[in-house]
Amino acid sequence: MDELEINMNSKQVALITGGGTGIGAATAIRLAEMGIAVVILGRREAPLREITDNILSDGGEASYYSADVRDFPAIETIVREISNRYGHLDFLIANAAIHDVSRISEGDPEHWREVVNINVVGCMYPVRATLPIMYRQGGGHIVIVSSVSGRVTYIGEPIYVASKHALVAFADCLRQETALRDVRVTIVEPGLVDTPLVDNPWAKELMKTVEPLKPDDCARAISFAIEQPPNCVINEIVMRPQKQIV
Length: 246
What we know:
This protein is α/β, with parallel strands linked by helices. It has one domain: NAD(P)-binding Rossmann-like Domain (Rossmann fold). 47% of the residues lie in helices and 15% in strands. The protein contains 8 helices and 7 strands; from the N terminus they run αβαβαβαβαβαβααβ. The protein starts with a helix and ends in a 7-residue tail after the last strand.
């Protein structure tokens, strides 16, 4: 093994889904600034390449894969490649998500299926692919990005709300299953965040009175969670803009 490979393998490594924009992109940049090698994953290659190039130009280490989180064989292959390249995979940031604004009586069932598959199954698949590697290496940290919509209910986003509630339950089950194997689990639940997901009537109305969080606010919370010592796990971070009530 040459010196370059030794240096690469000594770095902590993070896989970030939905890493091309919003919270995922901000997290990739922040973790790279902390000296972590980041691998970002998403469906659209152009934003992934842009974030990767920005990190590399700033002296960080980054790479990307264009893939769909609903494609388990592809995700499993990517995770295996990352593990083979670095010798380990320390962090999974499961962040990929899409949005839906509808009424239950009027919504598009096919889009509902897509929301649930990306937001829920698209979190479960990377966790399933990553967990055996973390068990073999003796630990790791999984961060699931949900939403305060996973803790409250309201009219206007029923399928999105349901998907985020599912993530909260999944994270709780995952934490209980992994605690004795030294794999930490954190769920981060932001309120209104200024990302592409706010391009909908419900969020635009809320933004008339509420200044949204910035993606880097969420990235800072994620970095806080993963920086804790091994004997400490931040189970849950709920964060809202100051003027967001629910």
